[in-house]
Amino acid sequence: MRYKTLCFGSIFIFLAYHSYVAIPENIEEPWKVRIIDAGMKISSLMATLLENMGLMKFEEFFAILMGFQDTKPVSDENITVIDTDFSGIPVRLYLPKRKSAKQRPAVIYIHGGAYILGSFKMLPYDSVNRWTTNKLDAVVMAPDYRLAPQHLFPAALEDCIFVVKLFLQDKVLAKYGVDPTRICISGDSSGGTLAATVTQLVCFNDSQLQKLPLTYILTCEHDILRDDGLIYVTRLTNVGVPITHEHIEDGIHGVISFATAPFHLQLGLRLIDKYIIWLKENL
Ligand SMILES: *[C@@H]1O[C@H](CO)[C@@H](O)[C@H](O)[C@H]1NC(C)=O
Ligand SMILES: *[C@@H]1O[C@H](CO)[C@@H](O)[C@H](O)[C@H]1NC(C)=O
User: How many CB atoms lie within 10 A of CB 131?
Assistant: First the structure.
């Protein structure tokens, strides 16, 4: 008994030591952030152990963990939700049920996950897309794309370009009642990079950065991609692209995915609100 207690105690101390992180002072709900961070670190440690034992690959372990957050396409009183595919690429469509006299705006939402993880099926993304559909009365299309390391770059980008081009065809827009002049391409984390790249390539082609449409960029202070975001803001501003830039001083990376139980941060909800309010005013 004493041996077991000692063992358990040592493992606990090891994990606590391994996962402790100094959190900047301005972070809201610091204990929740610490717990989420510790969860990530412990999962990473487990994934590394399992990979070293030859039991499964690092990303397979994470895919199993993330899979617990998967949702089915559940329609409700306001929205018809459909999982389908566009020429083999899986997409989830959110179609407002209410009849509308005029065409609706559309939002294409590309999920994050560092190019190796994630899906539109995950509860956080399903929730953001439902809220967007409801609050904007918009059609939302959320694609999945091939992930690394099974499918190396540029597979993810190719899939997104393909699916966006397919969606933007006149006959497809007409089928879903979408106004061709009111379409937004958005995403978070790696999905944000994909959204920016797809917009450049599909709609306006690379050589013409200045022709990019009105752009909303949300950067976070405590984010490994902060500087890339700020550089993009500067580049677009320099060529005269109209942008709205919001920098969140107490923001952390990927927080859009932390707005639903059990990883529920007020910050996540606040930033999603900002995104949807901006769309409501500008799309
Ligand atoms: C449906 O829309 C109504 C009116 O906007 C809203 O009050 C209600 O909560 C929505 N239902 C769901 C399931 O989101
Ligand atoms: C992009 O646009 C330029 C100027 O209109 C054109 O010369 C070029 O071929 C286009 N590139 C692609 C990849 O479509």
Answer: 17
